[in-house]
Amino acid sequence: MLSVRDVTTAYRGLVAISGVSIEVAKGEIVCVAGANGAGKSTLLKSIAGAERPRGGSVTFDGVRIDGLAQHLITAHGIAFVPENRRLFPRLSVRDNLRLGSYLHRGAADREAPLRLVFELFPRLSERLAQRAETLSGGEQQMLAISRALMTRPRLLMLDEPSQGIMPKLVDEIFAAVKRIRDAGMTVLIVEQRMAECLDIADRAYILQTGRVLMQDTAAAIKVDPDVRKAYLGL
Question: Which domains does the chain have, with CATH numbers?
Answer without folding.
Answer: 2-230 (3.40.50.300)
